[in-house]
Amino acid sequence: MRNRTIEFSILMFxxxxxxxxxxxxxxxxPIELEYPKNWPKPAYDFSNNPLTKQGIELGRRLFYxxxxxxxxxxxCSNCHLSFTAFTHVDHALSHGIExxxxxxxxxxxxxLAWAKNFMxxxxxxxxxxxxxxxxxxxxxxxxxxxxxxxxxxxKTAYKARFFEAFGDSTITGERLLKAITQFELTLISANxxxxxxxLGQEKFAEQEQNGYLLxxxxxxxxxxxxxxTNHDFEKNGLPLDTSLNDFGRMKITKLSTDSLKFKxxxxxxxxxxxxxxxxxxxxxxxxxxxxYAQTTALDRxxxxxxxxxxxxxxxxxxxTDREFLFNPDFSFPRN
Amino acid sequence: xxxxxxxxxxxxxxxxICLCGQAFxxxxxxxxxxxxxxxTMIALEEAEVLHFEPVFQGKKIGLDEPLRNSQMDSLAMHTxxxxxxxxxxLKKGRVVFQEKSSYHLLDLEDKNTLExxxxxxxxxxxxxxxxxxxxxxxxxxxxxxxxxxxxxxGMFWTWQSGYIHVKLEGFSEKCPTRNHAFQFHLGxxxxxxxxxxxxxxxxxxxxxxxxQLDLTPFFEQANWSEKHxxxxxxxxxxxxxxxxxxSFSVHAE
Lengths: 335, 253
Description:
The complex is a heterodimer. Chain A is mostly helical. Chain A has helices spanning about 1-25, 55-65, 75-80, 125-130, 130-135, 145-155, 155-165, 175-185, 195-200, 205-220, 250-255, 285-295, 305-315, 320-325, and strands spanning about 235, 260-265. Chain A has 2 domains: about 25-190, Cytochrome c-like domain (Cytochrome Bc1 Complex, Chain D, domain 2, Orthogonal Bundle); about 195-325, Cytochrome c-like domain (Cytochrome Bc1 Complex, Chain D, domain 2), CATH 1.10.760.10. Chain A contains 14 helices and 2 strands. The radius of gyration of chain A is 23 Å and the shape is globular. The two termini of chain A are about 45 Å apart. Chain B is an alpha+beta fold. In chain B, about 25% of the residues lie in helices and about 35% in strands. The model of chain B is unreliable at about 30-45 (pLDDT under 50). The chains are: A mainly alpha, B alpha+beta. At the A-B interface, helix 1, helix 4, helix 5, helix 6 and helix 8 of A face helix 1 of B.
């Protein structure tokens, strides 16, 4: 009987030791981003924010948690849905808490490790700082990072996750932003038909191939392969919408030469990221192509025959990456 | 009975191994604790202290204190928060000490932030202090930071990336704004509106130095009716940053 008690207490002690060992563990599952060999090096400096399994998972939970908004109703995913290339379909302008409407179309999120500036006008200079803008914007989450940090600090589950991700359960603005960044950095889309064609694994149909040649001739100087953006700001030839009076990049640089310049968005998964342009004024890809073929406001005239427009759209549809759109690692965390 | 004893022996052995593991973990932590303790000791013994205070017309002023400039305008300061960064100590033009991760957010509302302590100077003498009013451009583009640079400190613009180098808010009866409030949020890291300023000051003698910001030129500015609000990078933000940077001085306490 006594032996049994000794045995039991040793077992309990062992259990305690194992538990305490578990709580000492943090962020030691490093993750390396995987991307195609022919892609350039990412712009993001991972040495300041090394990816870990725990950091990414924390970021994912924050991304899907409406706690970030003032009345806890709207999360990042409201305007950035995984199944539609992390943008908000059917909404020309982004909308936030209490049905407030913003002034720009929410961008699709992917391949952000290569992006050098964020927002249609490049107002944000680093992926870490991007989340600050929607959190604070009155027409989006209408909150402040200070209050979000306070609110999250009251949740024990989050404290444990911050400990696992950063070795410290203290929640700071820096850690919160870096965790969201970690999740966003994993949103890589690199497995479309186009990518498989480049790797020689698949062949384009004749129409797609013709569309690809037209794309290279007319569009590729701004929508540079393989990321389909030059990460710069360009005139899109659209007339000013006087109900918004959005002059784009000029707001940031205050240079008149930057008037009506907007960031060149990626074209990947464009089939799913409608409506298009900075103010979401076009619902169909066909309208976008028609605009570029008609406009006289650009430095170079783009000339496309009706059948060429169809071919070009056929090529654009090869940029759809279903593995990315339906990746369970990117969707709402269910457990 | 024999089997049970064996069980206990095995369990004890496992427990022993686990204990050794934990002990090793604690032992490795001990070094960190020790190093931290050493740092604190240095801090206690040899910290060079720079005490900050704002002055107006030669007198120390506080927040919400009623003031009058030479034109007899009624004035007050409600907020004074600013970054001092990149501290360098020099002797005859040669650097004797450069503070690492040198970012200090001073807030007149929080006394603790007004005592700047520099450790690691040792007994080295110096005759000049150099620092920046604001945050340099490289730090601006390096992503989220912690400590005094944490975005929860309310010194980072959300709609356009950039630190607010200086927040100076208050009241002047000549301001045509609501409650006659003036609000200056000075920032900007991109050309041509880089508003971070380098300040270089000669130091009278070592130990217990007083860093003063003379707000007399600021409160004496003649155009309160026109210049009362700056909230984004601009020419005016650069000009006011320059004026403030030129108003620092160091004295023996």
